[in-house]
Amino acid sequence: MSTSRISRRALAVLGSLAVSLSALAVVPAPAHADGPGVGTPYVVSVGESYISGEAGRWAGNTNQGSYKHDALGSTAYFDNEAGTGETYQRCHRSRSADIHIGGVLSKNLACSGAKTTTYTSDDGYLKPGIDFFDNGSVRGQALDLQNFAKTHNVTMVEVSIGGNDFGFGDTIVACMSNWATSPSWWKNYCYDDAAVQARVSSSSVTTRRNEIAQAFANVRAAMRNAGYGDSSWTLLVRNYMSPLPRGAGIRYAETGYTRYDLGGCGIWNKDADWANDVYLSTINSTIDQARVQSGLTNTRTLNVATLFNGNRLCETGVGLLEEKGLDTWRSPGAVDQTEWVNTTRVGTTCCANSPYYIQESFHPNYWGQLALRGCVRAAWNGGAVRSGTCVQGASGLTASGEPKVVLQ
Q1: Backbone φ/ψ region at 268: left (φ over 0), alpha (ψ -120 to 50), beta
Q2: pLDDT tens digits for 113-129?
């Protein structure tokens, strides 16, 4: 074999190798999948109706037609990937839910009606709790959080839980039933009913505290199972706001039927006082005790107990759209003059074509959800999550169309 022939073959091999090396040099390194500490940050919510966005479709209250206060339309609760329905029926994860603070990606895993553990509601809907339940079609919120956190960079989890464990809905029903079925000269109060008193007894409070503490521990377990260290994320524990004023602050007479017919708040003054002074304070204090008992060291607290004061259901100073001379929820000043809590509806939820749900009663409406959103955004604090008490700020709306709030 001649020298020139060897040289030509060697050059060809070297040239081919050079092309191959060049091709390897421009192939990008494999991208790291999002997950613990990697990728765009997310904030996530878990819990029940006060955080899922229940009633977030309705901006204020009116008895003159749903179109006057329908802020989000018939798809308000659609949360599945296709945007065609709900992931879990009647979880009512609305687009106005407070976790969607903007400036950071968000995921709502809460479910209206949820308790600390998964159960089937009286109307037959499976309600995922903050646990690891899995029947193949419905998963507990802790398990959903764990799966989501494995492939997303979760930096804060907001939680609101405990109200349903304390029987909030049943207590409201009892109070309104007692008002509707007893005369003013022989008032049948709900606060002293045996079933209601049992919910705030010392033994009940101990049980609820243990359940809520376990729910918080389940959130921690979910994050640990997903690969997170405790110091790499924050649990923001939110308590409950007062939805109804004390009796003296209700704008409708205690007697007669305007409290129910117009306001949707049929309740005796003494029961309204008890709801604020005993029931709400017991629930909120138990939640904070559970937070301490859980042993989590990466928690912050968001106190919203008085946030709605001045805009609560049936409160003096605000009113229905028609009571304030407002045409629709878009009318100037509507946010300040109307209620931030959804009214109780019975007759208007009777039929299949009704846009209303009875489960929306006594929940933060569109304005209330957006006020809470401002509080969560302030607590998020650009990722340096902080505790605080959130109260109303100046009148009017922010540039993004939300009520103004201040985190103190």
Answers
A1: beta
A2: 999 999 999 888 999 99
